[in-house]
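Weekly puzzle thread! Below is a chain. First person to post its structure in token form gets bragging rights.
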Amino acid sequence: LQSSLTAIGIASGAAMAGLIAFGMKSFRAAAEVERLDLALQAVGASSGKGYTALKTASDSMRQLGIQASVAQQTTLKFAQSNIDLTKAAELAKTAQDLSVASNMSAEQALQSVTFAVTTGNTRVLRQIGITTGATDAYDAYARSIGKAAKDLTMAERRQAVVNLVMKEGTKAAGAYALALESPAKLITLFGDLHIDHIVTGK
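Winning reply:
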């Protein structure tokens, strides 16, 4: 009897510790989302794009299943780098598809896509399965608008990489939806979405 009671006590203690850890994780996630929302308001005002436009872009990614904080961070990067916010959801969907073959989460792939677009980093492009380099993307875009690659503005260089990611992403179209049929992927995704639901109420 004593051993049974001890086992029950240990199990109860472990369960309580797990609940506390989950609660702390949810609390920190909620605080991060709130902090980033304030940042969206500030950047929306300073960039002249407005909070509504930034919030709409962030929400469009959230609707695809991207975690709230990552959607907000991506939106901030787009706004600060003067990248078309209306492309946010499309790039997020492309990142989801690219994440499958790259063995990344959708959020990690989206962060890599965002970094590649804002910096032109070819190594990061390769990490998400895009073998064409940023220099080739610049050349192709420059020809399409009748300019020399060396004369492209920073905004045009970023648009060139956006175009490259979107084009290459079509090769993996549908991969993420197919991967969701895997029980292991669903279990991982459910855990992330459950916390996100607690944080955002959505």
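Puzzle host: Confirmed. Bonus trivia for everyone else. Residues 190-195 have pLDDT under 50 and may be disordered.
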